[in-house]
Amino acid sequence: MDALNFFDAEKYFGEICASNKLAQSAGFHFCTCSGIESLEGPLQEFSSKSAFFCIDDTNDGGYSTGRSGGWHKKRVFTVFILHRYSFDNEAERAEALSVCRKLSQQVLSKLIADEDDPSNEFAYFNTRSIMTRELGKYFLNGCTGCYFMLEMNEPVDLVYNPDEWL
After folding, report:
1. CB-based contact 74:64 (threshold 8 Å)
2. Which residues of the chain have pLDDT under 50?
3. Contact indicator for 45, 131 with CB cutoff of 8 Å
4. Alpha carbon of 3 to those of 71, 120, 144: distances in Å?
5. How many CA atoms, within 13 angstroms, populate the side-chain half-sphere of residue 129?
6. Could you tell me if 92 and 151 are in contact, meaning their C-beta atoms sit under 8 angstroms apart?
7. Partners of 149 in the beta sheet?
8. Is 63 helix (H, G, I), strand (E, B) or coil?
9. Which residues contact 65 (CB under 8 A, 6 or more apart)?
10. C-alpha pair distances (Å), 73 with each of 61, 78, 100
11. pLDDT tens digits for 83-101?
């Protein structure tokens, strides 16, 4: 991994969605969006799909240096787990939210297991603190769910190269 080849979150989470038994049995459709404000991926398929495993294709981040002197780029990934239900059916909404909670916990357990595998770059994940949030009853009529935000601190080469300058 270097400054030009950061972790491919879209590929990783797409594979998680495709390989998770609950996601497949509940019909979760993998897609992307550009934040909670737009959710264009789920909205484009809202009439034909009932469940969405969506990763935000934009992320906030920053650069920082550690005690060792090396630089890292922090990226924060947001994953939305959304499920439709019949509008005004509270029992169905509760069941849909329960499925989203279960899937979210399964995904987080996979992330933690992957982080402990020394053969990959997941050691840069920060799984010690993961922010989660459930969506309110009136977030999107007929849709409920939750999301989590995961931080990754990847090493980056910020050594000045005079050959890059005029």
Report:
1. yes
2. 1-3
3. no
4. 11, 17, 37
5. 1
6. no
7. 78, 131
8. strand
9. 71, 72
10. 7, 16, 30
11. 999 888 999 999 999 999 9
